[in-house]
Design goal:
Helix content is 39%, strand content 23%. It is an alpha/beta fold. The structure holds guanine and zinc ion.
Length: 429
């Protein structure tokens, strides 16, 4: 038996999906909860006193009234954009050309990629994020850098080489063949190696020729257990550009489908300006829409009506989309998701927001049976939240009648100061 650890505090436990059922029936906070960890995994979740009595040899970490949650799962991010987050004044296409592509070109240097990968994992761990699906850059070394840094921390990450063979600078273009070859070599090396998961990654339809999309669709058909991640319908100008580049396509989603890039293991970032056919088709194949609300506000893309997509039975994940997103924090991201849904008259409950940031995103990544819940057999990837982390939050909590009010205040007002501890694979980081 490996060393056992017992975390005690208020534990967040899921019994069902609060987006599709009454949240009260699906999410519970146990005010005297405990999580027993053995090695990298959770072995038991229950009442702290009972667990303590049954496992007297376990080392105890008492977190008092803090909320012990599953670690946050960020379902769409760009770790190579860490250093240029919060770049001023552009909308999507200008933002990519002005800020993003020059920064991504620096990842030709593997030492720079390694430096940023470490910094990115430090920043996200400080914010309670334990798993992410990240775009890399066009350089194979940028994929190795993130997988290597994550492996050293015992961390589950999803990433893949970002493929582009047009409408990008010379030093950021591959070809249909090299995108296929490089992605294949990377996924054969990394996918399923301990906690590494590969995502085939065409950036988006405007930066790939139809030949490149087809080559990557063929690769996905050869490796159907990999994920596929891309962008979809983020801004109206982009949608119009896709229409002109793919005149035969029915719509933006169709540019992926006709090249073999639509499926349940597909992650489609943003998806704000969808036509009804696209919504119906995503629901039919269970393609995942990844909601990036801080990015959608920051780049001026729009406010996704997430509850409407839920009603249409489209599976959803939640994501920062750094550095288009303006924060590394999934708390801030939950707040922005709340605000975007409010825009459409659909307030999301704190229980639904926490679900989206943990088990919801884990399910979007097809990892819902190993991460995103506090339950026996799951990896001990955990975020501990101080529900009174600042004066502003503490005074709000003093007036509150319920723990859910306190949790909501921390979601709306909290940042990395609210993250008391982050555990990855049973180790405190
Ligand atoms: N669309 C294509 N590439 C990107 C990117 O890097 N960030 C965002 N937000 N949208 C994109
Ligand atoms: Zn993105």
């Amino acid at each position: 038996m490996e060393k056992q650890t017992l975390l005690t505090g208020q534990t967040l436990v899921f019994q069902g999906d609060p987006l599709h059922h009454a949240w009260e029936d699906c999410v519970e906070i146990n005010s005297t909860g405990g999580v027993l960890i053995d090695g990298a995994r959770i072995v038991s979740v229950g009442d702290a006193a009972t667990l303590k009595a049954a496992h007297p040899q376990a080392e105890v970490f008492s977190y008092g009234d803090d909320l012990i949650c599953p670690g946050f799962v960020d379902a769409h991010t760009h770790y190579p954009q860490t250093a240029m987050i919060a770049s001023w004044g552009k909308r999507l296409i200008d933002w990519l050309n002005t800020y993003t592509f020059p920064e991504e070109a620096r990842f030709a240097d593997p030492a720079y990629a390694a430096e940023i990968a470490e910094r990115y994992l430090d920043l996200t761990a400080a914010n309670g994020t334990t798993t992410m699906a990240s775009f890399a850059t066009i350089h194979a070394g940028s994929v190795d850098a993130l997988f290597e840094a994550a492996a050293a921390r015992g961390q589950c990450v999803v990433t893949g080489k970002t493929c582009m063979d047009r409408n990008a600078p010379d030093d950021l273009r591959d070809t249909a063949q090299s995108a296929y070859d490089d992605s294949k070599a990377l996924l054969e090396h990394w996918h399923g190696k301990d906690r590494a998961r590969y995502a085939i990654t065409p950036r988006f339809s405007p930066t790939s020729t139809p030949e490149q999309l087809s080559a990557l669709g063929a690769l996905w058909a050869e490796h159907p257990d990999c994920m596929m991640q891309t962008h979809l319908s983020e801004q109206p100008d982009e949608v119009a550009w896709v229409r002109s580049l793919y005149p035969d396509a029915r719509d933006y989603l169709d540019t992926y489908e006709t090249h073999g890039l639509l499926g349940a293991r597909g992650l489609y970032g943003h998806a704000i300006h969808l036509e009804q056919r696209e919504i119906d088709r995503l629901a039919e194949v269970q393609g995942r829409v990844i909601h990036c609300p801080t990015s959608n506000a920051f780049i001026g893309s729009g406010a996704l009506d997430l509850p409407a997509l839920t009603k249409a039975n489209v599976p959803l994940g939640l994501a920062t989309d750094t550095g288009g997103g303006s924060s590394f924090s999934m708390l801030r991201t939950m707040a922005a998701a709340y605000e975007a849904a409010q825009h459409h008259g659909h307030p999301l409950h704190a229980a639904q927001l926490l679900w989206l940031a943990t088990q919801g995103s884990a399910r979007a990544l097809h990892l819902g049976e190993e991460i995103g819940s506090l339950a026996a057999g799951y990896y001990a990837d955990i975020a501990v939240l101080d529900l009174k982390s600042t004066e502003a939050i503490a005074q709000r909590a003093n007036r509150s009648g319920s723990v859910w009010e306190d949790v909501f205040a921390t979601i709306m007002l909290g940042d990395d100061r609210a993250v008391r501890a982050t555990w990855i694979a049973g180790s405190r980081v």
